[in-house]
Amino acid sequence: MPPLNALRAFEAAGRLGSFKEAAAELHVTHGAVSQQVRLLEEWLGAPLFERHNRRVELTPAAKAYLDEVGPVFEQLAQATARYGVTGRVPRTLTVNAVATFTLRWLVPRLARFHDAHPGIDVSVETSNEPLESLKETYDVVIRGGPDAFYGFTMRPFLSEERIPVCSPALLERIPLRTLDDLHRHTLLHTSSLPRVWPDWLAKVEMPALVPAANLTFDHFYLALQAAVDGIGIAMGPTALIADDLAAGRLVMPFDHPRLPSRSYCTYVPDANATDELVVTFCAWLEREGGDCSAFSMT
Fold first, then answer.
1. CATH architecture of 161-260
2. How far apart are CA 77 and CA 68, in angstroms?
3. pTM value > 0.85
4. Which of 259, 256, 270, 263 is nearest to 298 (CA)?
5. Fold classified for 4-83
6. For residue range 153-178, what is the model confidence (pLDDT) as tens digits?
7. What is the per-residue pLDDT across 40-58, written as a single tens digit (0 to 9) for each?
C-alpha cells in the first residue's frame, strides 16, 4: 500500500486542481502537500502532475488513478461517520513558548485551534530559556528569530515592531499631544529589555528626556498590563497588542517611529518535521500570524 498521507494529499490536490487549495482543506502548508505528492510519485515511479507557473494539472494516467482513489476516500469517510470514533484517544501536541507571547497571543487563540482540530490536544509550557538550554523535548518550540539550530527546522510566523502604547483613560487624564508631553508621564520598562525606551527616544532625538517617573517590571506582560490599567506608557510589541488595539484597551499616541523587532518562529525537531499534527499546528500559527501582522502594521 502507498503511504496514506501521500494519497490524501494527491486526492485533494487532484480533485481541487491546486496544491494551495488542497493545503487549506487539509490544514497543512503548501510545501507539505507538495512534499507528499513527490513522495507518492517516487513510490509509484511515475509523475502525477504537470506543474505550471501558478497551477498543476493531472497527467492522463493520474486522472484515471484519481477516478479510482477518490471513491475509496469517500467510502472511508462514510464508514467512519457510521461507526464513529468515540473510542479514539486524542494525541497531545507539546509546545514550549515564551511567557509573554503565550499569555497575550497564543492563549486567546487556542480555542480557535481546538474548534478546528478537536482531535488534537495541546499541552503548553512557558519558558524564557534559550532553545539549546531546554532539558525536555517538545514537538514545537516558539522563540524569537530567525535563528539556526542544528537538528531543528525553523519557520517565522509572526512579525512585529515596537511603539509606545497606553490606555485611552490615561490620555484623558494627562494629554499626550506632542513628544514633549512625555515628560509628564510614567514610562514602563522591563528589566529583560532595558534598551527599548532609550533606543526609541534616541530615534526621536530626545535621548535626555526625563519622565515624571520610571516603573520597571521583571516580566514584559506585567508592563503591558500596567499600560492597560492606565499606570503609564509601555513600548508595546505590535503583534502582541493587536487584540488590545482592536478592542480599544490600548492606543498608540504616535504612529511612528517604530523600532524593528525579532519575529516569532517555530523550531521543530527534524524528526518531527513531517509529523501531521506538527505540520497542522504550525500551518495554523502561520495563518493566525499572517492575519495579526497585517492588522498590526496598519
1. 3-Layer(aba) Sandwich (3.40)
2. 15
3. no
4. 256
5. Arc Repressor Mutant, subunit A (1.10.10)
6. 999 999 989 999 999 999 999 999 99
7. 889 888 899 888 766 788 9
